Amino acid sequence: MLYSAFLWRRGFQRDNWINYSLLAAAFVLHTLAMAKRGFTLHHCPVNNLYEATTFVLWTIAAGSLVFGLWPRLRFLGVFTSPLLFCVGVFALMPGLDPPPTGKPQFANGWASLHAAMIMLGYGAFGLSAVAGSMFLTQERNLKFHRARALFTLLPPIQRLEKMITISLATGLVLLTAGLGLGAAYVELPEGASFQGDPKVIWSMLVWAIYSVLLLLHWKFDQRGRRYAWSAIVAFGFVILTFWGTNLLSEIHNPAP
Amino acid sequence: MPIVVTGLSHHSSPVELRERFAFSNAQIADALGQLRERGIADEAVILSTCNRVEIYAATRDNDPALGQALRQFLCDFHGLGPAPGDELYTHLEPQSVDHLFRVSCGIDSMVLGETEILGQLKQAYKLAHAEKATGALLNKTFQKAFNVAKLVRSETQIQRGSISVSSVAVELAESIFDSLKSRQVLVIGAGDTSEKAARALKSRGAQSVLVSNRSHDRAVTLAAELDGRAVGFDTWEQEFKQVDIIISSTAAPHYVLTRDKLEGLLRQRGHRPLLLVDIAVPRDIDPDCNQLENVYVYNIDDLQGIAGQYLEQRKAELELCKRLIARKRNELLDSLQAHPGNTNLGLREQQAGS
Fold it and tell me: What is the model's pTM?
């Protein structure tokens, strides 16, 4: 993140593999840590809030690295790393990662798949917010006639807008599939119900927000700054309310 | 065998003097032959462009008077009187190699960092090579110069950015639009700069160009040149729906496009980005249009300001270029020193010691 701040000040003027390599190295370590935990627990590590958060961050990092293969999108990592760092530190809060009780909260493979797809979806939404912040940076440069709009190696704003849309659409598809799998195949604990569960209601709300956002873009030509801000605010809402609703939900956070 | 360069450039002399020393291609072949026949140089390359006339030469016998002989040859060949003083310069090794590398990188050019000179240098070398006027030394040195130019281009920002108004307009378009391929350009007022900008956009792939001018004949002529279409000066608004980039340079004393008018027009075309380049003085486009969402207005001062900053950026890269050139020059001279056919050791050591 510190190196990102340095590059930000330098104005992204030179192609920079150091930024990409640092993110890639962190991603490898992150993957190893997640794999180790997964093999130890014998299931996908999306069992508690810490694991869920790190899974979302892993998805965002993976997306940034893939997009970063294109030279003009390489600085995506610079915009991603502060988000990864801040949310990652938050995920380390005590209480979010209770020691395993020996029995996973989610009993079958469908539950793991349900959780993993939703987390991948949130990761894609995170990426749309990152692309949105890149858009706002470059759009501001252009609007205020700053020469750095041309000096930087940031992509054209129209391409960034496309990237927001691709990430949003991918996230929505994954979220829809994950929610569908959860509703159809996941076995609920005894006495629990989807109806009235805060996490279920919240998930439907998130789904509705992103659906409206894409609908506004495709059908009502919502573009530019407002569109980028919408992607950022929507993800801000997800990240800020994710923990609360999870802790309130009996299905997702059953009493020991 | 030292490399010597003698000549004159835009730094040292006015065009009135340079043109008297200029060589045509046919003259270059003749001059290269004379240099060899008269025993002045064993290897030579002659570079003659609008901004410089230079002879790069080398002899086997380490002739310290080679520079003076080249100066005299330049005057004799063109039938001129005594050689001019400061206008004509001579560089010995290692400054001659430095000079060649600087020329190849465009940092000795009038437009700092321009790349045209590299093509001209390659052409000059090719001609000398075809005339068998080059040997192991100049072959190696010129190849190295071309490599250095490539290195400088990739490792520094000396050639980055546009330092002309029309190129800046193209770069702006490329910072906004994903691709210029499907973009429609509208030129309002067929002035010289707007024509250049439209040409540059077209060469970068813009789909089509519409031209609107008070004199319709001029619009038709320019549209034909740009493979576009002329539209009436009072009816260009009808085409607005498809347009992505407008370049305006009319002589109108008032705004051709006001904010109110643009707001009405924008409703026709949705929220696609719109780039408005206003190169007219007085201005054609109300600056308040820039406050509208997805609209980007740049006037002549904005464009010149960016071009000026690019130039400053290039100047700031000069030191880095010089360091790279010095490193590559040392590499070249060390490798030539190690070469058994190289006979310039005496002079090089003498210079190093002085």
Answer: 0.70
